[in-house]
Amino acid sequence: MGHALCICSRGTITINNKRYLSIHRLGEGGFSYVDLVEGLHDGRFYALKRIVCHDKDDRQEAMHEIEMHQLFDHPNILPLCAHAVVEKGSKHEAWLLLPFLKRGTLWQEVEALKDKGAFMPEERILAILHGLCRGLQAIHNKGYAHRDLKPTNVLLDDDDQPLLMDLGSMNQARIEVRSSREAMTLQDWAAQRCTISYRAPELFTVERDCVIDERTDVWSLGCVLYCMMFGEGPYDMIFQKGDSVALAVQNDLTVPQNTRYSPALECLLCSMMIVNPQQRPYIAGIICQLEEIQPPPAGQDTTRI
């Protein structure tokens, strides 16, 4: 575990004997916030995620996120540069030092296009989708699932490559449910940790005798693809209007009529969003369909998928 020291009067922090200058707040959520910091040893910018831990359970969850980052060295998964857990009065904070990507999230890119009255071209969608699939397959191959894939949890680098972030909801890919109690426990967990408008149907009403697997991520990936194609997730507006997302996801997806995208891309989208999880393809099947539409760029290393 890293060692940290806060020197508030100078606006700097030290992690693992390296000092970082706080620049400004990038964003905040319910129990965490992210600051832009500059490494005084290398002049590079970083995003410092601070997770507020009120008790032992919070600290364990923060350590889980750190451990998930440490599992991967992959170009489509955001790496962890350093970390520390520090005392803040009666509480603790977990600090995750992450690369700063100035282009921001996929959601910000979709919003910027909407503001211009533009839509993402199919070739770009396919390229971003390739990267998302590679990152997800790396996670699935280690026996885990992301469980909270959405456009705000995808960063874009300078080469337009996507990086998966926010790994705190990751857990084992295959979860066997053998009782009503286990089903309710998983359902409650999903309600807290899996964003409602990107949550797979099987997580809204968990059956008492079933297996939940990594294909929940394939559903969420379909929602992300829909968002890239049409400027918002398929259930975003339903949630915003206060209607039942749980009910809406039980019906087959209706793809808006358009002439921008090929029938092959629409078919790929529909295959991701099959309501019955046992009929939904695994990520390897999605990659096969994707590469039939557009092979990976020449020279791209597919061995790291």
UniProtKB/TrEMBL annotation:
Organism phylogeny: Eukaryota, Metazoa, Chordata, Craniata, Vertebrata
Membrane topology: Lipid-anchor
Record text on subunit structure and interactions: Monomer. Interacts with DRG1 (via its N-terminal); the interaction phosphorylates DRG1.
Protein name listed in UniProt: Serine/threonine-protein kinase 16
Keyword entries, A-Z: ATP-binding, Cytoplasm, Kinase, Lipoprotein, Membrane, Myristate, Nucleotide-binding, Palmitate, Phosphoprotein, Serine/threonine-protein kinase, Transferase
Source organism of the structure: Anolis carolinensis (Green anole)
Domain of life: Eukaryota
Tagged with keyword Hydrolase: no
Stored PANTHER family: SERINE/THREONINE-PROTEIN KINASE 16, SERINE_THREONINE-PROTEIN KINASE 16
EC number(s) given by UniProt: 2.7.10.2, 2.7.11.1
Stretches assigned to the Protein kinase domain: 20-293
Top-level EC class as recorded in UniProt: transferase
General function of this protein: Membrane-associated protein kinase that phosphorylates on serine and threonine residues. In vitro substrates include DRG1, ENO1 and EIF4EBP1. Also autophosphorylates. May be involved in secretory vesicle trafficking or intracellular signaling. May have a role in regulating stromal-epithelial interactions that occur during ductal morphogenesis in the mammary gland. May be involved in TGF-beta signaling. Able to autophosphorylate on Tyr residue; it is however unclear whether it has tyrosine-protein kinase toward other proteins.
Recorded name of the encoding gene: STK16
PROSITE patterns, alphabetized: PROTEIN_KINASE_DOM, PROTEIN_KINASE_ST
Catalysed reactions, as listed in the record: L-seryl-[protein] + ATP = O-phospho-L-seryl-[protein] + ADP + H(+); L-threonyl-[protein] + ATP = O-phospho-L-threonyl-[protein] + ADP + H(+)
Pfam families: Pkinase (PF00069)
Entry keyword DNA-binding: no
Location within or outside the cell: Cytoplasm, Perinuclear region; Membrane
GO cellular component term of the entry, any: Golgi apparatus
Any GO molecular function: non-membrane spanning protein tyrosine kinase activity
